[in-house]
């Protein structure tokens, strides 16, 4: 057995990670630690303050503070139910909040589940009132079942039933519709549920308008032919002009529809972009806070070398590590936080290091077993595990291994070969630079360049047909996350709609030309 493994095993056997058992203090501390981990936000905050405070603070928390914090947490939960629940939940939540703490607790234990069941049944009834035959049948089956059946119907079954009913509706529309409606309906049925919904929400009316236009223009053509046969040139001329006007009005109406649709898409895109930007900012702020918390904790542990700070800093660090450490570190931190001053000192001086090694070795073992990891990295992980801990820590810290630079260059070349107009030069620039440039490209630069490429590709489609432009403008005004879906999914469908309209316009123009040709 390797020396470091022997040390680790000895530490485990010696109880470095075991929960201490001093009878007069530790049960109280262990109880507070459990509440720190399992309690609501208020209880957790109060437990942390008690664990980091004096014995009197701990006693006060367990005697009264815990219950008050729990009371506050319970009221928060009821308030959340009040703001997000259905009508029965809202009404019963307000009643609970207006009562005693026992009323609140009883509501959370029994009233809230029953209220949610009632609200679920109301929601199913509402779905039935607006649904088709499949929705009604499956909704009734859910209502005849258990509360779990009702919830499952609302979560997944309702949409599935709507999809079936939507297809039934499309088939009915297709059976009753004209040629353009029939063609458009068949395209929808051959596609996805989203295609079916789009047809029913918008394209059905467009196709019906096209059928109306063709019928109206064809009627003028037929009238022109009859007038020509009867040698009534003025009637022929009027019919031809009417056919041209019907077609022109239809083109203008379609242009107006697309302009409104484009404006709506842009508005939606801008709202989505704002929401995504806000979410990204929140994520950056959270990352900054996390980094600062880690830095603060590292300083606590560094300063804990001062004997006067070992215990207070060790306890504070234990709280942080209990929330953010690996499995072994969490176990060790829990034991230290639950234990005596001597246990905290042991944790700071030796236990944490042993636990961190255990977690790091587990992480490197995962790399060694990962079939998707580079072969060189997997071998480096195996080699590190066979050696001292310093090699394990270095691999996790740097990611370096023999042959990494070559593997990185191969990866950059692969990305460059498959990349677009921004990715290719960015990759080449990295290859012409330093090792650091290559690693920066692989870590960040490739993704920035790829987004630029996607935006370039999407921008190019602004020169295509009006259906494409109506969608593309909204996508370009929207978040970057929508670009790939647009290019892969929405663009082909918009192109198909443009082709559908172009075929229709060709048909109408031929009829208009036929009428015009009859004018003498």
**Extended strand count:** 0
Q: Nearest-angstrom radius of gyration?
A: 35 Å
Tertiary shape: flat
Number of helices in the DSSP assignment: 21
**Distance between the first and last residues' Cα:** 106 Å
Major sheet characteristics: none
Q: Helix and strand string, N-terminal first?
A: HHHHHHHHHHHHHHHHHHHHH
* Structural class by SSE content: mainly alpha
The helix content, as a percent range, equals: over 70%
Quaternary form: single chain
Which residue ranges are poorly predicted, with pLDDT under 50 across at least 5 consecutive positions? 1-26
Give the strand content: under 5%
Give the mean pLDDT: 94
Verbal overview:
The protein is built from 21 helices and no strands. It is flat. The termini are far apart. The N terminus is likely disordered.
SSE topology:
Elements: H1 3-14, H2 26-38, H3 41-52, H4 55-84, H5 87-97, H6 101-130, H7 133-143, H8 147-176, H9 179-189, H10 193-229, H11 233-303, H12 307-324, H13 327-338, H14 341-369, H15 375-385, H16 389-398, H17 404-418, H18 423-431, H19 435-460, H20 466-477, H21 483-517
Key features of this structure:
86% helix, 0% strand, 21 helices, single chain, 520 residues, mainly alpha, disordered N terminus
Concise summary:
With 520 residues, the chain is mainly α.
